[in-house]
Write a structure and sequence with these properties.
With about 220 residues, this protein is mainly beta. Helix content is about 10%, strand content about 55%. The protein has one domain.
Length: about 220
């Protein structure tokens, strides 16, 4: 599964590199397409039986319109994108996703369990170009929840049967989340970090999920 994920990621990134550069050339650098792969580290407090895996892979893709800053090569970018965050639970699963307060059921036999949150993003960045090939960006984004779902595989009921259960539209989630980010790039490749400022769940409705994201991305520079 991990090899398939890495192969798919490599194919997507290669395709994005070719198409992003084409768009950059045709629009004289005013439009940029980007794609990121990242992992989320939860900085929120622990919550009863809820614990996250060390690696929680996700991705995002976006398009921005770049406005030059005076006569410099620096730009301000405003865009639109989508992001997908996965939170993998260890030995626990979300058995009641529609309860007023979200709790997690501890079950050592559970092999795979996750929550998936998908957002529509509006990013805003200030980009500083250094020696033409290097670029440093700082920014923020507002994200609107589009879809949420949970999935579990394993003997969740202790009856010796391997179940696969999926639920959609988890209750108690914030419809809007905010974050800040920074990235440093050379040519089309960049590394970035991001931090979500508010909890993914509403206060008192679920665990405290405040993801710190770190990853690698590509965009036409």
């Amino acid at each position: 599964m991990k090899k398939s994920f890495l192969l798919l990621a490599a194919l997507i990134m290669t395709s994005f590199m070719a198409n992003a550069q084409l768009i950059k050339d045709r629009t004289n650098g005013q439009v940029t397409i980007g794609f990121d792969l990242f992992t989320d580290i939860n900085t929120g407090s622990s919550y009863e039986n809820f614990d996250l895996r060390a690696i929680n892979q996700g991705f995002d893709t976006y398009i921005t319109y770049n406005l030059p800053m005076a006569e410099t090569k620096h730009t301000v970018s405003l865009g639109l994108g989508v992001s997908s965050h996965n939170y993998y639970m260890k030995n626990a699963w979300l058995s009641e996703p529609y309860a007023d307060v979200i709790t997690f059921t501890e079950e050592p036999a559970v092999k795979k369990s996750k929550i998936n949150l998908n957002y529509l993003d509006i990013p805003l960045e200030v980009n500083f170009r250094i020696a033409d090939k290097f670029k440093i960006s700082i920014g923020a984004k507002v994200s609107f929840l589009m879809q949420s779902k949970t999935k579990v595989k394993g003997d969740v009921f202790g009856d010796g049967h391997k179940w696969e259960i999926k639920y959609k539209d988890i209750t108690g989630l914030e419809s809007i989340v905010y974050g800040v980010n920074a990235r440093m790039g050379y040519r089309c490749v960049n590394v970035f970090v991001g931090y979500q400022l508010n909890n993914s769940f509403k206060s008192g409705r679920g665990p405290e999920i405040l993801p710190f994201s770190i990853g690698i991305g590509i965009r036409a520079y």
